[in-house]
Amino acid sequence: MSRTHARTKPQSEVEARAALMRAADVGDALMGRLISQHGAQQAVEAIRARTLPSEFIAREAQQERPQDLTSRLHTWYARLAAANPAADLKAGQSSGARLIIPGDAEWPTQLDQLGPSRPLGLWVHGNADLRFSCLKSVAVVGARAATPYGSYVAAEFGVGLSESGWTVVSGGAYGVDGAAHKGALAAGSPTVVVLACGVDICYPSDHESLFTSVKEQGVVISECPPGVHPTRARFLIRNRLIAALSRGTVVVEAAIRSGALNTATHALSLNRHLGALPGPITSAMSAGCHRLLRERKAVCVTSSDDMIDLVGVMGDDLAPQIRAPAVPRDRLNEPTKRVLDAVPARGGAGPASIAVAAGVSLDAALSALGGLAAAGYIERTPKGWRLRKQTTAYRKAPDSAALEPPPTPEPDPTDTPPFPDDFPDLDYDHPQPHEPHNVP
Amino acid sequence: MSRTHARTKPQSEVEARAALMRAADVGDALMGRLISQHGAQQAVEAIRARTLPSEFIAREAQQERPQDLTSRLHTWYARLAAANPAADLKAGQSSGARLIIPGDAEWPTQLDQLGPSRPLGLWVHGNADLRFSCLKSVAVVGARAATPYGSYVAAEFGVGLSESGWTVVSGGAYGVDGAAHKGALAAGSPTVVVLACGVDICYPSDHESLFTSVKEQGVVISECPPGVHPTRARFLIRNRLIAALSRGTVVVEAAIRSGALNTATHALSLNRHLGALPGPITSAMSAGCHRLLRERKAVCVTSSDDMIDLVGVMGDDLAPQIRAPAVPRDRLNEPTKRVLDAVPARGGAGPASIAVAAGVSLDAALSALGGLAAAGYIERTPKGWRLRKQTTAYRKAPDSAALEPPPTPEPDPTDTPPFPDDFPDLDYDHPQPHEPHNVP
After folding, report:
1. pLDDT recorded at residue A318
2. Where is there biased composition of kind Pro residues (chains A, B) (predicted)?
3. B339 chain-A contacts, CB cut-off 8 A
């Protein structure tokens, strides 16, 4: 499962960063600034010498909230003393993983947007190319304690995104994360698991076989050195990577208090797209999503197509517009509809009173009545015109949404009347049998 | 059940409008303009004389889409000839209803925003005062073919809005409408049913007892004369009244093709507030709501409080902020949390290595360890400090949302550590038992 990659940086640089990944906490912006100003190797020397470069100290003094450099240096020093980067590299590589650092061909440059809190390096384990996999990627995140609804939808999104050529990025946790990864794997696509522990640690342990499949088809990555176990802090800091790697994040299920909302916050602060999935208002696991929607921080996303529409190239990845079902009555022109409305269901009415009720001329009424009779909407009785029995029968059983009135003006009225068979639409507002509208 | 009201207009004016309500279709803007320019009585005379005022004809010629005045006049004339306004007023009043017209004390002036398509008059049946009832009102609309979820939520909204002193306005139909009205009645509040037929017609017939209760507690209203039956056109035009009477409209359930969306469109065009209720993306009856949310036409509303927050007086009717449950760990200060994270679950670690792992000074680590031990988070063993057994036990069973990490920075860290009993939060990210972070 091991995979070689173009190493553009000298081994010394790699070892220096491996050492600093031990010295600093993940997302340590102070270390980030030290490296960006003086390089990894000089940073290592400075820490070992317990003296930070004076220019660095001067610059830090101008920071908004200057930090206690002495204590930080002490912490770095103590950890560096205990660190063994060569052993780390050996351990990682023997486990089949590789350490990539900024400047490497596989480095996902979108992480540079994280500034000084950009990872010092990333341990990558798997057959896919991380950078390539994340070019078109979506983060699917949500509660570990997902409901069956949440797990189902997460898997659907995993499949849907993958089938459209998008990579699913998530945290490999229970619930939404795992379901999304599994959906992506089922669709035969690479998927990216971002861990809050070393890539050689299987956390949660129940996901061992999942992670094995991911390493085959995608990658498991982490900014933690081998052997490091997860902590709360690392989970929260890990979330910034999930948001930063992908073009957009969709929150599938989240309680009001949820780590997924932390990822959402990172996505927004990185100006990435944010989608939220609606659910029943009776479900506490959707309350976080609904708050994101209510506060207009997230776009309402109801399918993977919706999400692709959001993150995709404008016009290139548009979600298919949902269309309302057309019903036969749409195909009647306006005066004919008015005449049909004026025909009683019981008894009968003459063309003249129907014309008055419909507000059309007698000629118009006569021709419309002819057409409606031909199409089987109405029938002539000794008492005059009335709706056909089967129509009245239909009216007793309203049930489908298709029976409701169109929200928009009626479609092209030039069509011809339909056959009587597909008729349920007359159902709409299933009125009582009625007489013409004149008062008695 | 009959109710007298201050009639400020002469009977002749009332009879004239009653006659014109027969002559014109509901929402007939042409008739509206004729009346606004020449008054109802002159309009009646003009129609009877089959000659429209020349100024009116001249003005109409300048309309964007001038209408065929001759055919309209013919229709009005024919219907007026068949009309008997005195009989209408008698029939309505004997049934217990009253006809109110613009200028009456009970007239809801917010309808004037409808311009020329404002109703010519309104038949009102019930003990409540229409104008007063609608001062603080919300339209609760949705599918007739509501799901159990939709009906449940509609009833909840009916109760919630009423208990907060808001009147529910709806169409009295099956499904969402009926459930909302029933919820309002259950809360002992007036509610307003806007019919698309005469107030003496019970449509749908199964709602006879509902309408009877509404007339006791609220009002049933219609712009149709007595005896008039519903038609598709009247339902769509009726919807503008529901939107115009209320301060805002909430769509509880709506398929992509739904009359409720037609009401939503009216609400938007009248610049009233629009809310939509989320539901499962797997439910076709929520697709219309989700589209409104996705297109940002509606605000996501998950409770009657949310809706009141939307339509209410700024700052006066704010919805209570949902709070995340606070968990014990929140009450630990930052260094103490870091130390707790660095204490292994199995084996044990000395203060020095814990201090290095946590990135705090030895003194800070020692005091934090003391506090954590006192609070029962950790215990001292021959091998050093480790998490208390019960804690480790907790870690095996992750299930509740409250166990997830906070989306926001931790609360006030000055609090004292809590008792060990309420401890589930240590569950968050339930890690494997782990050793300190130094490599072996």
Report:
1. 64
2. 404-421
3. none
